[in-house]
Amino acid sequence: MKPLQLVMQAFGPYAGRETIDFRSLGNRTMFVISGKTGSGKTTIFDGISYAIYGKASGEDRSPTELRSQFASNDVITEVELTFSLRGRSYRIWRSPQQDKKKARGEGYTTINARSELYVYDKDGKEQLLAANVRDVDEKIKGLIQLDANQFRQILMIPQGEFRKLLTSDSKDKELILQRLFHTELYKTIQEKLKSEADDLKKSVESSMEERIRELLKIHFEENEELHSLLLENPLRDHHILQLLPAHIESMEIREKEVQLNYESVQEKRDALKKQLQEAEGLVNQYELQEKLRAEKESLLKLKPEIESIDRGILLAQRASRLVPQDEYCHKLNRNLKELKGQLAQLIEEKNEISEKLISAKETFKEEKNNENLRDDISKKITQLEEMEKDIDSLDMLMKDTKEMRERYEQQQDIVQKLTEQISFLQEGIKSRENRLEEGENGQADLFQFEKSLQENQSFLEQVNEIEKLDQKFQIVYIQEQKLKEQYRHLQRQRLDASETLAHLEEKWHSAQAAHLAKGLVDHAPCPVCGSEHHPHPAASVDSLPSQEDLKVAKEKQEELNQKEKRMSLAIAQEETKMQGIQEQIDDFVRKIREKKSDFNRNEIDDTLSQVKSEIEALKSTMAEKKSEVEQSKVMREEVRKGREKLEELDGSRLKNLDKLQGLNTLFLTKDTTLQKVKEDIPYELRSKDQFNKVLKEQKQKREELKTAYERAQKQYYELENMYSVKESQVSDNDTHIEKVNAELKTEREAFLTLLTEQGFSNYKAFQEAKKSEAEILGLQEKVKTYGEDLRSVSDRLHDIEKHLQDKHKPDVKSIEENISRVTEELKLVNDKLNKIMTNTKENKLILARVTSINEGIKHLESRYQMVGHLAEVARGQNANRITFERYVLASFLEDILQVANERLIKMTSGRYQLIRKTDRSKGNVQSGLELLIFDQYTGQERHVKTLSGGESFKASLALALGLADVVQQYAGGVSLETMFIDEGFGTLDPESLDHAIEALMDIQSSGRLVGLISHVPELKERIDARLEVISSQSGSMTEFQFLA
């Protein structure tokens, strides 16, 4: 990046518009910026820095404080920089947020920060790249590829800034180098290693807790040694895992024994089930015998009905022989009725046609008499057709005249609309110019509102997290209270079980004493105490506890002990959860109170409601402001386009006025010709439409008369023919009726003869006996089925009576009771077997899971040993107390020192060399980035703070130049062809000044533009180009001066 021209207005000490054209330097690449103190030398670099980044060069200068106090109220503060970069030229313009005197009325209005960026094409024309602050910042970031801090470090060596870097301690250097080289990644790696180490440690602890939970699930059965190990705290998992395989093996042996017992009982139950099945089969045979007897009695009761059906079948078969003849007689009768109906219809139609024929004859006669009227109409039509050409000519003239009038009126409307548009556009341009001035103030407000919205949304998210954590805390708290209540209940149960066991043990020992007392004999020694006298032998107890009772009581007590331990562990886990949640809540509250000290946790609902309202209000206001800002962008373009449109409309209006005058002349000529033609044509026929209407009416009337004649003629002849046809049809129908009547009489006589032959006394008897073929077949099937059913039932009844002749009905209930008893026994054995199998399976799974957990713990511990060590080393817990990030920064610093020493050796005639202090500092002080100076005269190292003012400047200058080169190398693709150095040369002796200038000559010889801000006269004499900053009471100005 190389500056070509800098323009500053009302900026710093420059009151007016100050232009510095660096192109006037020509081939010179080094110049001195000189002037009085406070005249504005450093402000030149401030202007360059502000134009590119919107920020000044020094940390103590903010954009809003850069406005010149010399400038008048109506002059806007702005900076414009034209620069070249990678063979292309750009122009950037910026104006900071500032107050401007209102154009109308009293007071000031705030103008928001604005910015624009342009690029020059090959023809030297500007093209807009970005038109607002945010877009310009994004474009500059992509072009320059450095942030503002890096840009200042490379291009500007300000007063005292590099003295800080030279003499600062390791901690301060770390902050400076972090900003320059963006080493946040290495810090992230440190934190990532620590996080992974912590996670691994937690995973090991979690796996150990899981192992304890698994071991406590072991079913110890009657293994007292294993039982006692499971009661220990802490558990000796190694010993438990040694005993568990043998315990599982003994459980498998016990499982096989119970399995054999289960199979034995199962065989017994299966034998009883087989006996029951045989008994139930015999009972079913007796029940079937009774059922068959009942079925046979029911069938015998239906025998008379079946015999009646058999007789009806015989009569129906005889009647079926008469059906064809009967149906034919019915058919002839139906035909006769149809023929008679047709005859009546034909006679009626013939009479109707006769009446129509008389009417048609009269109509035909009337139409013949209209011949003369048809001739008169034809003559009138001929006359009108001859006049049609004159009518067409008149119609064309009328249309032309009308069209000319309409065109004249339309042109008048166009001129009027253009006049109105010009007036409206003038008002619109004036309104937009006023709104443009007001709308440009919205950008700064919008940025402030966005910042407030982000802060409120962040606060809302944190408060919501607190609410969620509170809810989670309550859930865990409720669960903890439930567990504590259950724990207290378990304690009471365990105490009751302990008292019961103690009582049973006491009774059992007493019972043992009574048992021994029964065997005592006088003068014989007691097996317990050896005494031969027994004055008070123990009395027997009525209800004695058995070994099984004691075992059950011990198992119950042991089960309650285990439950109590598990419950205690669960309560501890819940309390740990509560503590973790509370810590998260406290952390959120602390973060909130860092920004809102008055935050009250007890008023979260009110706070949430208030913040949500503020967010909605901000969103609404931001939407309005965004609309205003977007609108202001549009306004500027609309004003420009509006002025162009205004010129266009004004020219168009003048053209249309000339056209209006020409149309008026044409209209008057056409109208005169029209009036002459109208005089030769009757008034009622002057209209082409009226003429066509009259001609059409006459032609239509002629056509109607012709059509009426032809229709009357056709209708008369058609009706005459239809009447003759109907007379013939009536005669034929009479003949057919007589023929069918004779045939019907003959067939009826034949049917009566057959009726007598088949044994029917009359037609009614025939009708009653008549059935369809399907009905006859159905009745026959019913008779057949009855006979087969009766025969089947009789045969089956005979067989079953013979089968049951020597048998007795069995007692099924007794067999079922035996099966129920054996089944209950089988269930008990099965439950016992299932319990043993389940416990064995679970113990195997526990053994496998614990073995797997141990393998996992071994792997995690191995991983933790490596990651934990890396995390400690990366965080500086090593012999040199250097973190990973600082180690990387030290490497960068070594690169800087290597480049810096090349110049420092020249400037100090080989005496001084900068080196990095590698020794560890005393105590816990961070080290690794401090600088020492090696003095060739003494051959010893010493701290850089011991350097004199001139030596310190040379070291600082060398360090600054080295840093600039190294940062540019690491930035990659960055093109910076400029450097400004601010003050410090006054501390150098003539020889040192020569060395410093030689070092700077090396820089500018590579094509880099070097600007030296200095009061030193020797520099002005040695360098032939000088930018003189001249100050006055009304502000400063600049001027390039060149030595001949």
Helix content: 55-70%
Largest sheet: 6 strands, antiparallel
Given helix and strand content, the structural type is alpha+beta
Radius of gyration: 62 Å
Q: Shape, please? A: flat
Q: What's the number of helices?
A: 22
> Count of DSSP E strands?
17
How many domain regions?
4
Mean pLDDT: 80
Strand order of the largest sheet: 2-1-4-5-8-9
Unreliable segments of 5+ consecutive residues: none
Distance between the termini: 29 Å
Approximate strand percentage: 5-15%
Question: How would you summarize the topology of this molecule?
Answer:
Layout: E1 2-11, E2 14-21, E3 30-35, H1 41-53, E4 78-85, E5 88-95, E6 98-101, E7 108-111, E8 114-120, E9 126-130, H2 133-144, H3 148-155, E10 156-157, H4 161-167, H5 170-181, H6 184-215, H7 224-230, H8 237-301, H9 303-319, H10 323-368, H11 371-439, H12 442-518, H13 547-595, H14 604-678, H15 688-757, H16 763-769, H17 773-803, H18 812-874, H19 884-907, E11 912-916, E12 931-935, E13 940-943, H20 949-971, E14 978-982, H21 990-1005, E15 1009-1013, H22 1017-1022, E16 1025-1032, E17 1035-1042
Parallel strand pairs: 3-15, 3-16, 10-14, 14-15
Antiparallel strand pairs: 1-2, 1-4, 4-5, 5-8, 6-7, 8-9, 11-12, 12-13, 16-17
Helix pairs in contact: 3-20, 4-20, 5-19, 6-18, 8-17, 8-18, 9-17, 10-15, 11-14, 11-15, 12-13, 12-14, 19-20
